[in-house]
Structures are given as C-alpha cells and as structure tokens.
Write a structure and sequence with these properties.
This protein is of the alpha/beta class. Strands 2-1-3 form a 3-stranded parallel beta sheet.
C-alpha cells in the first residue's frame, strides 16, 4: 500500500512539473520582444560584453530584441538619432554637446558612460617582449582616427 501511495505521489509530481514546464515554454513563445535599434560609432573591443550578450541571447531573456548597426562616426550616430532611425547611439559626449551648442530644437540626452579612456591600442607587426615607450624612438606611429597624423618617434 505504501509503495502504491509513493508511486502515485511521484506520478502526480512529475505531471505537475511537466505542466509547469509546458506553461512556461508557451509563455516564452508568446512573449513579444521590444525592438531596440542601437547605432555604434565603431566596432570596439570595449563593447565586447554587449556583443557577447547579443550573441548569447541575454537581451532576449529580458524581452529585448537588439538591432545593432555600425554608423561609422559620431556625426552619423547623431544623424541616426535625430532622424529617429535608431533609439540609442553609442558615441562620445562631444556629439551631445555639438547638437546642444547648435541650438537644435530636439537635442540629445546622454544617460550613461561606457568607457573612461580613449579606445586606442598600440599594435605592432612583430612581437616585442618587455615593451617600453623608448622602443618607439625612430618608429612611425599611425593614428587610428581620420585626420590623425603619422608621426615619427
């Protein structure tokens, strides 16, 4: 008798778990994702957490469908924002200041800071063990942004 009661309780327990799982999966299927269009000024290693979150579905887990585009420059990010082509723009604070100083009727609102430093890296064609700044003497350094000069150390 005891074995029969335990078996019955076990079957009921499994049935309830199956129903709960089915109900939850239906809710996930019916969940509408909110589309958020994001423009970034450049592809950067600093945005790696964002790329990982998009690719691993973490935004979808919280109901967001991220549409990420490369705008290639703060001016293009601002243009996309002001024309309502995107919802969020990732660029430097200077873009917000330019629009504000231009006395635009619809100005931008900065709400977060992602990095505190310039996203520049010093790279070489060859590996340099124990690099020191003195190693740049006599070498050419090419700036990473449009308008930067090639300088000789």
């Amino acid at each position: 008798m005891r074995k029969k009661i335990i078996t019955t309780i076990g079957v009921i327990f499994i049935f309830v778990i199956c129903l709960m799982t089915l109900y939850e999966s239906k809710n996930v299927e019916n969940k509408k994702l909110t589309k958020v269009k994001v423009a970034e000024v450049a592809h950067s290693v600093f945005y790696a957490p964002q790329y990982a979150a998009i690719n691993n579905g973490y935004f979808e887990d919280v109901g967001l469908d991220i549409d990420l585009t490369l705008a290639s420059g703060a001016d293009k990010v601002v243009a996309a924002l002001l024309s309502n082509d995107v919802d969020i723009g990732l660029s430097g604070i200077e873009a917000t200041i330019y629009v504000y100083n231009g006395r635009e009727e619809n100005y931008l609102k900065t709400f977060a800071q992602l990095t505190q430093k310039d996203g520049s890296f010093l790279v070489s064609r060859e590996k340099i063990d124990n690099f020191k700044l003195e190693d740049l003497k006599g070498k050419y350094v090419i700036g990473g942004r449009k308008g930067e000069r090639i300088t000789k150390g």
